[in-house]
Amino acid sequence: MPRDPKNLPHRRIQLFIGAILVCLLYVQFALTDENEVVLAPRTPIVMAATVAHDPFEKLIQADPLAALKQARERHIAQVKDYRCTLVKQEMLPSGMSEEQEIDVLFRQEPYSVVLHWQRNPGLAERVIYVKDRWIDEDADSPEEREQAVCQPGAIARLLVKSIKQPIHGKLARKSSRRYVDEFGFTKALFLLIKYCDIARAKGELKLEYCGETRFDGRPVWVVRRTLPYTGEGGIYPDRIAEIFIDKEYRVPVAVYCFSQDSKEPQHLLGKYEYRNIQLGVGLSEADFDPATYGM
User: Residue 130 — φ and ψ, nearest 5°?
Assistant: First the structure.
């Protein structure tokens, strides 16, 4: 006789429910149409015609890498939390993703993120991650110990309100080029600077100031990074990265990554746009509590 599920150990019940959710989500993905690359129209870059009076503007024109490092330290020191809307589209192992729109809450300490998909959710509709809050002591590997709380889509929620998933697990790798603990302006600046430093040490970095334009109705500076990209198995994450730095916030509010010098849609690796930014909003513990969202 089959064993009564009520008698299964708690961990096996979790695995059983997780397997059902993965099957449901796979079916959902299998029924979607082929994804289309959507590149937002961009205003032509206008080269600055006058001498900059802002010391940071002078720095970004003369030494963009030093400017990125200064912007990182300024952001860490001055910004404790924020909310924004992330619009992203990425080349994944399964192909180009749909363009997603995600409402975001972010707090620096403890590192905390809430991602709530408003358009084209993937494996979850909402994800909450707080560093060191949810740890699976019985994980098969150390990299799968740290977890996030995930709220599945409407169909899967008929079975369960939420489920914990490792933030560096297989499902996470399939659904995004970056893990949830790599989100945020500080982490974006760290990653941009990391590969600039590696390339500069090898004599392979080309980082240039390209001028000014507007993004999301706000003035930005544009910096272009070129690396000797050789594919996903190589040391570098892309060939071209166009980085839009907000003049007031001094953070990368848009980054477009390409595998070739040509910025055609078929060469897109990742598009990341941060809109409706509100810095220093005073987020509370409740904003990062799954119970607040019925999870």
Answer: -130, 125
**Residue 87's CATH number:** 2.50.20.10
CA–chain centroid gap for 291, Å, is: 24
**How far is C-alpha 103 from the geometric centre of its chain's CA atoms?**
12
* pLDDT tens-place string over residues 225-251: 999 999 988 999 999 999 999 999 999
Number of domains in the chain: 1
Return the amino acid letter for 265: P
Domain assignment present for 287: no
**Residues 68-106: tens digit of each pLDDT:** 999 999 999 999 999 999 999 999 988 999 999 999 999
Strands 240-246 and 163-166: unpaired
Alpha helices of the chain — where are they, by DSSP H?
A: 10-30, 55-62, 64-78, 170-175, 185-201
Tokens of 284: 């509370």
Question: Residue 256 domain-assigned?
Answer: yes
The β-bridge relationship of strands 252-258 and 268-279 is antiparallel
Predicted TM-score (pTM) of this structure: 0.81
Reported as type and span, the H/E element at residue 80 is: none
Range of the domain at 261: 5-279
Please check whether residue 288 lies inside any domain of the structure: no
